[in-house]
Every structure is written in C-alpha cells, then in structure tokens.
From TrEMBL, chains A, B:
Alphabetical list of PANTHER family matching this protein: AMINOTRANSFERASE, PUTATIVE-RELATED (PTHR43799), ASPARTATE AMINOTRANSFERASE (PTHR43799:SF1)
Record-level Gene Ontology MF annotations: transaminase activity
Keyword tRNA processing: no
Species of provenance: Kineosporia corallincola
Membrane spanning residue stretches: none
InterPro entries: AspAT_Ic, PyrdxlP-dep_Trfase, PyrdxlP-dep_Trfase_major, PyrdxlP-dep_Trfase_small
Protein name: Aminotransferase class I/II-fold pyridoxal phosphate-dependent enzyme
CDD domains xref list: AAT_like
Sorted UniProt keywords: Aminotransferase, Transferase
Pfam family, any one: Asp_aminotransf
Length: 425, 425
C-alpha cells in the first residue's frame, strides 16, 4: 500500500501519472467503455438466425402458423427452453418482444394503471410510492422509476446481495414501498451473486405493502465467465412455498445470448400475476413476433443448447475480462487508489476509486478520448453520494482497444487519486 | 321489396328459411367469419421473409449493425418506404415492433402518465376524460379506452367519415374530450373512406382541449380491392398548416401486408410529439427489432414494391369479397331484410339487419357452426343500441368455406328477419 507515502513520493508518482496522461493525450484515442453491448464477433455466433426459420418453415410444434396473428403467451417450444434457465414453470413463463427492459417498464405501467393482484388500488391512485434500489445498480432500472416519479431508496449491495437487514426493516414498516429491483446473478455492475439466504429472505420477509413486487431481472442467468456455472436459489418457488407467490416478477431475455437488438424477452410470475398480465396485454397486442421465437427455438434447440452457445461467448469475452483485471492489477494494484470486482459472469467490472474521485476520473478519461459510463450512473438519479463507483464494460471494444482504454483509465485514476491525496496532506 | 308482404307470404318465406336452416344444421358446419386475418395463401406471398435478411447480411444502409442494440427511431430505409404510404415525413415517422395496436395502446399510456405537448396535466390527473368513437368501428380500439376507464361517445359514421357536425360541436364545447378514433381509409368494418372535406375539418376544427389527439389508424392505406387506388387527404399536413400539428397521431403497420404476426408497426406525428414519444420510449426500449425491419426493407424495396405486393393480395382476396357480395345479393337482395357495404378496400363488409335482429342472427349462426364476430362488437362496450350491425370478415376462410358461411349467414338473416316481421304484423 502506498497510503503512507510522503509528499515527495506522492509528487513523483503524480508526475509520472501526468507524463503518462499527456502521452496518452497525444495519441488521439477514441475508445468507448460505456455500454454492455456484445461485440460483433459475439453476434456472429448467432448469424444462423439471419436465414432462419428457413424457406417454407413457419409451423410451430403444435401446428400454429407463426406468420399469422395470435398466441399471446408466446411460442410454447421457446418457453420450454427458457423455463429451466429462468426457474419459472413453462405455464407461467411468457415469451414476448425483443426486450426485457420494455417488459419491466410495462410492468410498472400495468401496476400503475390497473390493480395488481393483492393491491387495494392502482399504484397511480396510492399517492407517492417508493422502490428499493440496491446500489451500485443498473441505470436503466433507475430511469424507469424516475420517469414515473417513483422515489428510490438506495440499499447497499453486499457480497451476498442487498443488505437484507436494511431491506427487511424498510419493507416491514413502510407500505408505500412497493418493490425492489434485483439482478440476482452476476449483477450489473458488480457481478454480485445473491446468496441462497438472501433469496430465501426475499421470498419470506413480511412486507407492509400487500402489493409488493420483486423485479427479478435475471439478465445474466447463463452468462458465465468461469468454469463454475453459478446457480442461485429459486425465488419464485421459495416465495410460492412461503405463501408469497405474487410478489415475484421474473424477467429475462436472449439479448446477450443471440442478437442484442433482435432477441426475445421473457416474463415469468405466479398464476394470478400471469392472468393479470395477460388480461392487460390482451388489450395491447394480438400476439408477439412468433416467427422470431420459432427462429430462436430452432437455433437454440434446448436449454443445453443455450449453455453450449454461452460457452462460445465466454471464449470470446473471457480474455477481455482477464485483460481488464490484469491491467488493473498491474497499474493500480498496491496503490491503494482502487479496488475492483472480479466477476464470475455477466458483463461488467466495477472499479471503486477514492471518495470524490469518480467524476474527475471519468472527465479526465473523456479528455483523452476514452468514454466511460458517467460517474453516478450506477445510483438512483445518477447520484453516487461517495462519487467513487465506475462501471467498466469490457465486451464491446476489440481486445486491443480495450487494453488501451483500461490502461488510460488506470492512468486517470492515478492522476486524480494522487492529486487528491497530495491536497489532503 | 317484400316489406308489403302479407302474413301468408311471410309464413311461406319463413318456412322456406327454416327448411334451409335445418338442412344446414345437419351438415355439421365448422366455419369462422370472425377476425380480419389474412389467409395462409396471402401469408405465402411474403415467405421470402423466412430466409431474409440472408446469410451474413445485417448492415443497414448507414452501416449500422442491425444485430446490436440501438436505433430508437427504427431503420431509416424502412421508414423511407412507408413515409409516402402513411403521408408522414420520414423524420417524423418511427418504425417499431410487430404491432400498431400496441403503439395505439402505448400512446394512451404515455398520455396518461406524462404530459402531452400542449397538455396542462397528464391525462391521469385530469379527472374523467372522454374519446369520440365513430360507429360502427373497431372493437380493439374501443377495448383500449374501456381498459383505461375512458368514456366513449359514439358518433355516427356517414359515407364521408364521422358526422362532422356532431364532432365539431362536441370537441368545441367539451375540454374533457381528448381525442377521436379514426380509420380514414377502408374503415373497419364499413369500408368508409374519409372525404377530403372531413379530413380538412378534422385538421382545422377548434377543440376545447388543448391536448386533443386524432388517433389516425391508417391500417388499410394500401389495401385496395378495386382498380381505384383511393387516396385520402393528408391529415398531418393539413393540421400542421392549420397550426394544429400536434393533434395528429398516425399509426400503420405491415401486419396485413407481410406477416400478420411478424410485421412492423409505425408511428408518425409532429416534431414535438415525436420528441415527447422518444423521450418516453427511451426509458422503455434500447431499440426495436432492426433485423426484422431490414428484412422488410429488403423484401419490399420501396413504396412501389408495397403497391405491387398489395396487388397480389387483391388477386387472392378480391374473389372472396366478390363472392360474399354476390351471395348476399342473391339471398337477401330485394328482401328488405338487409343492406351491406361494398368496400373498395380493407378487410370487412358490414351487414346491417333489421333493428333488434343482429344478436339473434349471430346466435342462430353459431348454433349451426358458423362463428361471427359478436353482435355489438362494432360499438363501444360491445353495445350496438340498434342491434343491427354484423361484421363479415371474408379473407381468412377458403373460398369454399366462405361461400358456405355467407349462405348460412343469409339464411339466418331470413329466419330471424321474417320471424320478427311476422311478430310485428
């Protein structure tokens, strides 16, 4: 650790960082570490979809002409593939459009505008409502709440999931808290995996709100980065056993399995929730794009097919995560200026820099052509009170660009970190 | 006309109808005239889509990788094809998911939950609001209003569109009337085409509500059944010229052009409306299925390609409409028991039977295995006060089934109609 360094040593380190920085500035970099997008070579893995379902192929297993209207629940054979992946019984799992984000958004819309099972009133008629937001978390989740004027209460994310002492206390006492966001496996952006105990508590905890919902965004269910296929406990099953079947909304999609823009989203829940969902959905849609669902069912085959396909992704992005971690270690290890997560799956690495430094680091990086997700994006309303969390998305750049970008980022951390430390002396 | 027949003649006609009916009952028919679905041979016309965009083909004209996230507005080249078709400037036309119905539904959602351009408040905060519903109309439109508790005020549909004397009077005096449904060309179910004068009045009329919207569902823009390619006036252009650009929401889709379940929906509006729409949509979606849009752009080519494709549809469904009209004429012509529309396009024929007879006709038909859209479906809340309108959807059955079904329907009209007339003597 360098935290005990004197002013002279710090000045030398800062000078060195400044020199590196101005050298980088001269290179005219144009690099982007912002969004969790698959790279082109990952998308290539699913290019078979570009000619599927194939000439004159349009019948579902049950004989349905997928080209025509109908089939609100989505294609049975695709739901069968993803039921075990998402831990939802087939009958309670719907296959929808090209995005799970829109399903989460629409879950709020439906709950705002029509009474949820268990609710006394529509959310829009209940006065101000609140949601728990484990932090760091996913900016697009928070944007949905913000858009509907739903207050978010940040809850610290521990290594085993949200701090359940805080969660259980808050939901027990405040009936205006209507739900919690959760990315239970390889969480965005920390890679956190919810422990079995956390899932059990979420399933069983008493809530003051009778219409409490857990938005279980299982976006990275099969997105492993190690040999360990991490499993999580079955929230819907545990909640059902505990008499709280209706509190669980499960979301998932193939966006980071097949094509990010042209995949299939899924919604799973209790029988009562599904009935409620379909009765609302039936006013909105005559059915999802069943051909795209047939295309996916043909391409993936079964759950094992999904797992096998994800191994190919891992072969492509594993080295990117490894390189990121290696460079962070080489550049920042032992400096005391940063810690970072070492995720076993998912799409992100979280870099934690000294308090008050994240915004500056992101700004300095931008000045030399390295775009990072805005500091604060991992927190509700874009406000990280400690200003210390930076999300790194290693998948989209080429290996070469990624390494250059992480190098540059590390340099910015040293620059800003040593500057701060000198000031504080 | 047989309206002046005596009891004896009527009894003879009724006996004959009864005989026909019981003969039909013995045949064990299983026929369906309910929904406006394309038949399999129409879907076959677009089967090229089943292998498009084609191996290794995923770049949009501007170089975008359509497989990845992004592109909230939808694919430029597809929007260019449909801009002239839907009479909306390309920059103000968005290409979306597989359904225009969901766009109409979501337009209500967004207007309910976020302030429309010109609105003082969100619709959800304005107390009870109302919509004008030209009748006969489309049941799925009415279901959306019903689902959100929006009161519908029926307005008679004349041969030139909604009765504009009623419309202009109501919207001028009642600020709680927030909009009107409109299917301006080959309307569902009457085939009505809005006259230029009607469109001009809709564009120019003063409205008490500053946030009034015309839901312009141009579902049958290119769905001609005759050599005449009927054109309607440009509502968005006229409204813009009249200083009411924001009052127009244009909807359209390829559902009855390519695949009913796997097409592309469109939303067009003023710049301010599009900005409002995208700012809300951006919280919901990272972009539509651009591959399906590329698939469609490749298949259709340009607006002329759309027109040429629709000629193939006409060749398949024109004979079905012709047969329906022929049988109605043979069976019911001169009986005084029914009138019907002779549409120049679209998907439906409206059959009008004597007051109080529609429900019975539909029930009698069901008893002998001919399923019709429920009587009343053409009116808000499923209530046709005259109980006289029956919607016929000729496209989906085979020609043979269709002819048998229309024969049976005509028999039921005679049965119910002569029974009623005898009772009234």
């Amino acid at each position: 650790m360098t935290t005990d360094l004197g002013a002279q040593d710090l000045t030398a380190l800062l000078d060195s960082a400044r020199q590196d920085y101005s050298e980088l500035a001269g290179r005219g970099l144009k690099l982007d570490l912002t969004r969790g997008k698959p790279a082109a070579d990952q998308l290539d893995l699913a290019d078979e979809l570009l000619t599927l379902p194939g000439a004159a192929t349009f019948k579902a297993a049950d004989g349905t002409d997928t080209r025509n209207y109908g089939g609100l629940n989505g294609l049975q054979e695709l739901r069968e593939i993803f039921a075990p992946v998402l831990q939802v019984p087939v009958a309670q799992l719907l296959a929808a459009g090209n995005s799970s984000l829109e399903l989460m958004h629409d879950a709020f819309v439906q709950a705002l505008l029509s009474k949820l099972p268990g609710a006394q009133e529509r959310w829009v008629d209940q006065g101000p409502i609140k949601f728990l937001a484990p932090v760091p978390g996913y900016d697009r989740h928070f944007s949905i709440c913000e858009r509907f004027g739903i207050e978010m209460i940040p809850v610290p994310l521990t290594e085993s999931g949200p701090d359940m002492e805080v969660v259980t206390r808050l939901v027990a006492e405040d009936a205006s808290i209507k739900g919690i966001w959760a990315i239970p496996k390889y969480s965005n952006p920390t890679g956190t995996v919810y422990s079995d105990e956390t899932v059990r508590q979420l399933a069983e905890m008493p809530t003051a709100a009778p219409d409490f919902r857990i938005f279980w965004d299982n976006a990275y269910a099969v997105h492993h980065l190690t040999d360990e296929r991490v499993e999580i406990a079955d929230l819907l099953g545990l909640a059902t056993a505990a008499g709280h079947a209706d509190r669980v909304f499960v979301f998932g999609s193939t966006s980071k399995i097949t094509f990010a823009g042209a995949g299939v989203g899924f919604f799973g829940a209790s029988e009562a929730n599904i009935k409620w969902w379909l009765s609302n959905l039936g006013k909105r849609s005559i059915g999802p794009d069943k051909i795209n669902q047939l295309r996916h069912a043909t391409f993936l085959g079964d759950a094992e097919g999904v797992f096998a396909h994800m191994e190919k992704h891992r072969a492509l992005i594993g080295p990117k995560f490894d390189a990121t971690l290696r460079i962070l270690g080489e550049q920042l290890g032992g400096t005391g200026l940063a810690t970072w997560t070492e995720p076993k799956g998912g799409y992100f690495i979280t870099l934690t820099v000294p308090e008050g430094c994240a915004t500056d680091v992101v700004a300095r990086a931008a000045e030399i052509g390295v775009v990072l997700t805005p500091a604060g994006a991992t927190h509700p309303l874009g406000q990280d009170p400690a200003d210390s969390v930076i999300r790194i998305a290693p998948t989209f750049p080429t290996q070469e660009d990624l390494e250059a970008a992480v190098h540059a980022l590390a340099t910015c951390v040293k620059l800003v970190g040593y500057e701060q430390r000198l000031k504080q002396q």
